[in-house]
Fold SpoIIE family protein phosphatase.
Amino acid sequence: MKKPNRSVTPASGKVAAQPKTRLGRRVLLVDDSRAQRRMLAIQLQRAGYKVSEASSGQEALDLCMAENPHLILSDWVMPGMSGPEFCRAFRAMPREGYGYFILLTSKTEKGDIAHGLEAGADDFLTKPVSGAELLARLSAAERILKFEEELRAANDHLRNTLNKLNEAQEAMERDLAEARKLQQGLFRNRSGRFTDFDLSLLLRPAGHIGGDLVGFFPINDERVGIFAIDVSGHGVAAALLTAQLATHLSGSTEQNVALRAAQNGVDAVSPAALAKFFNNMLLEEVQTDTYFTMIYAELDHAKGHVRLVQAGHPHPLLQRSDGRIERLGRGGMPVGIFEKPQFDEISVALEPGDRLIIASDGVTEASNPAGMLLGDDGLEAIMRTNQMLEGHNFLESMSWSISEYAHGERCDDISAVLIERRAVPKVLTYPPRDR
């Protein structure tokens, strides 16, 4: 067993173990009196401190640059540079760690003490200095220095951890940026034209990647499948399910679950049957807590007829050519929650000049700073205001109106499908001119 370092105090002659906190600490004594410095140095060395001495403030500043002392004991009255002046210069120096500064003085006036504190002193010792009081004050300084060192070490550890987190965040941002490109690749066609019908799509994720998906695919020469999907959440899990659903609704007959029925002599499954297929897929194959809302519609552009299923998605809004707006559907059940859901189909005829908008809840649930939702009424107001606009111009204006309403804040993905039947051009006739 290692024996502790011991010293003999001049007052009692008893042997005492040196506190471990004092070992390695460097104290700088600053006094123009060599005798005063020697007396204090002996006490400090016996207490386990390393001691340096300076006879003036300027010499002390040079030693501070070279040795970076932990504690400083400085006389107040010295030729050339006083103790407070030296303290102020010491505080202005760049250094690693805190330096505890004690002024030695015979001054006891409150104004003098305030002057010393303003200069940056931490404590005062009245001359002549008592050995017991000196060690007591240094013990108090030790506690402060130890606390400062622990805090600095904790800050260094926190800074290193934060740097690692920033590096991880940057890597994640790069990965998410690439994922966004891949997800945008699923959103290939942003518009389509079928006889006298125009399709326009809008997709605005709230973050790098989202859980909304819109698109369409041809079923045959007369019909088009149109889908709008909103997966719960808008993070990585939602994006992965969105990618899987995009594959199932691609233009490929082998992959598109709505077109697989063509192999059995039927050109496509019904909208309600497609919703049931996805519901079983989520419950039996994917087995996740994630669900989604959906509207899947079949547009018969030869007859001007739309048949659709609403599975928990916001109500489609039908705007007639005269400006009247109708809300379609009863809401329906989301996909992936219930084992035996009921999915109702809706049929509607679109006349020339009519249009149908299918928007996600990121549109209707946009809120202003007061917390009021835009709602279906707000979307209807936007449709009336922009009645003269068509296609992507209408969708961009709608997106701008939503951003203005929410003061630029967007907490959810925004997606929409706009189905428009072009109006029959009016033929203008003029009366014959008199000859």
Summary: Residues 92 and 216 are 70 Å apart (CA to CA). The two ends are 131 Å apart (CA to CA).
